[in-house]
C-alpha cells in the first residue's frame, strides 16, 4: 500500500495533484509546526478542504496525518474533526504517549506513533497494543527529497517482528527516501505502508506511483 506525501506536491494546485494519486490507498499529510522541525506546512483547514474534495470526487482514500509537532495533544482533536483517518504522533515529543493514543482512538481515528531514525524501538514497548500504526522514519524528519538511511532496514525488520508478535493488526509504515530502487528491499524488510513524496510528485505522479507499485513487487519498470 502507498501513501503519497503531498509535501512534494504543487501547493498552488494541490487538488489537481491529489487527483493524480487518487489510486493510492492513503494520502500522507506532513504537518510541521516550525518548532519540532523548521518548516511550517499544513493545518487542519487544508485537511478539511482535502477531505471535502475527496468526498465530492467519490475517492475513498484515507488521510494519514503525520504530526511533526512539539505539542500534538493540542492538535489531535482538530485534525480528526477535519477528517484525518490516521493521526501519527512522534514518540520523542511526549511523556504521555499512552494518553495521546487513547485520545486519538476515542475520537474514532487510527492511532500511530512515529520514531525518528535515532529513536529506539523500545520507546513503544509499553504501548504496542495501543497503536494501530507504527511509522519508522527512514530520514530525519523535516524535508522531502532526502536519502533513505540504509541502516534503518534492520530496524524495519525488528519492528515488523515486534508487531507480528505483539499486535498483528497494526500497520507498519515507512517514511523517507522511498524510491523505485529501494522499495522492494523496504517491503522485504516488512513495511506495509510506504510513504513517497519526491518519488511520486517530482515527475508524472500517476506513472511514478505505478512504477513504485511494480518495483515493490520486484517487477521491472514498464
Ligand atoms: C519528512 C516527511 C516525509 C516526506 C517524505 O519529514 O515526513 O513524509 O514528505 O518525502 P520523500 O519521499 O521525498 O523522502
Ligand atoms: Zn511524513
What would your notes on this structure say?
- With 222 residues, the chain is an alpha/beta fold.
- It has eight helices and eight strands; from the N terminus they run βαβαβαβαββαβαβαα.
- Helix 4 links the parallel strand 4 and strand 5 (110-115).
- The structure holds D-xylitol-5-phosphate and zinc ion (ZN).
- D-xylitol-5-phosphate (DX5) binds at residues 5, 7-8, 28, 30, 66, 139, 141-146, 175-178, 195-199.
SSE blueprint and pairings:
Layout: E1 2-4, H1 14-20, E2 26-32, H2 44-56, E3 62-68, H3 76-81, E4 86-90, H4 97-106, E5 110-115, E6 133-137, H5 153-166, E7 171-175, H6 183-188, E8 193-196, H7 198-201, H8 205-216
Parallel strand pairs: 1-8, 2-3, 3-4, 4-5, 5-6, 6-7, 7-8
Amino acid at each position: 500500500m502507498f501513501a503519497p506525501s503531498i509535501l512534494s506536491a504543487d501547493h498552488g494546485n494541490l487538488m489537481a495533484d491529489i487527483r493524480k494519486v487518487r489510486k493510492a490507498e492513503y494520502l500522507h499529510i506532513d504537518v510541521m509546526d516550525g518548532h519540532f522541525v523548521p518548516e511550517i506546512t499544513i493545518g487542519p483547514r487544508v485537511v478539511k478542504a482535502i477531505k471535502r474534495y475527496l468526498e465530492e470526487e467519490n475517492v475513498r482514500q484515507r488521510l494519514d496525518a503525520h504530526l511533526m509537532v512539539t505539542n500534538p495533544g493540542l492538535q489531535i482533536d482538530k485534525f480528526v474533526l477535519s477528517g484525518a483517518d490516521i493521526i501519527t504522533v512522534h514518540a520523542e515529543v511526549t511523556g504521555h504517549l499512552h494518553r495521546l493514543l487513547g485520545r486519538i482512538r476515542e475520537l474514532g481515528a487510527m492511532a500511530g506513533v512515529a520514531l525518528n531514525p535515532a529513536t529506539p524501538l523500545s520507546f513503544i514497548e509499553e504501548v504496542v497494543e495501543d497503536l494501530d500504526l507504527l511509522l519508522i522514519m527512514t530520514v530525519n524528519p523535516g524535508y522531502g527529497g532526502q536519502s533513505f538511511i540504509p541502516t534503518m532496514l534492520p530496524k524495519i525488520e525488528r519492528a515488523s517482528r515486534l508487531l507480528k508478535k505483539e499486535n498483528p493488526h497494526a500497520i507498519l509504515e515507512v517514511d523517507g527516501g522511498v524510491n523505485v530502487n529501494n522499495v522492494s528491499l523496504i517491503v522485504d524488510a516488512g513495511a506495509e505502508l510506504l510513504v513517497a513524496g519526491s518519488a511520486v510528485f517530482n515527475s508524472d505522479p500517476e506513472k511514478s506511483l505505478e512504477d513504485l507499485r511494480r518495483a515493490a513487487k520486484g517487477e521491472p519498470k514498464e
